[in-house]
Write a structure and sequence with these properties.
Blueprint: H1 2-24, H2 39-57, E1 61-63, H3 65-81, H4 86-93, H5 96-112, H6 120-133, H7 136-139, E2 141-143
Antiparallel strand pairs: 1-2
Helix pairs in contact: 2-3, 2-5, 2-6
């Protein structure tokens, strides 16, 4: 009788653990907000856009393309972990309106931290400061 109870207790405990893990895992049903509502992913795309604007506006700064690629793939992995599938991700990144929205947000943030569109030297100042602080943006850039 004790053996049966011990077996049942282990089975119940295992089942509870399995159910706990299953309920913690994201599912397709959980990924219904839309990628445009995923703050961490949007912030990552904005950081990439900001770094790109800095490197194209400032001749003293270039991109760390491998770092940018790795960062972009990490955003893709996060989207997949949230339950989005490859076709949803592809559709999102190819959406022209979404690209314009992210670029607009990136430009607004750049302006807020001192990069002015009509003054390319300000992009250098901001870019070098981001590199110096080791921010997400700074990690995607390098001084020439």
């Amino acid at each position: 009788m004790i053996l049966a109870n011990s077996y049942c207790a282990r089975a119940v405990a295992s089942t509870k653990a399995l159910l706990f893990v299953v309920f913690l895992l994201p599912s397709q049903g959980m990924a219904n907000e839309g990628l445009d509502q995923e703050v961490e992913i949007i912030d990552g795309l904005i950081a990439i856009s900001m770094a790109d604007a800095i490197r194209t506006s400032c001749p003293a700064i270039s991109a760390r393309f491998i770092e940018a690629f790795i960062f972009l793939k990490s955003l893709e992995s996060k989207a997949l972990a949230l339950g989005y599938d490859g076709s949803e991700i592809k559709e999102f990144i190819n959406d022209a309106n979404e690209k314009d929205r992210v670029l607009g947000l990136a430009q607004a943030r750049l302006t807020t931290i001192g990069a002015l569109p009509d003054q390319p030297a300000t992009y250098c100042t901001v870019g070098l400061a981001e590199i110096q602080t080791g921010s997400t943006i700074g990690k995607l850039l390098k001084a020439k």
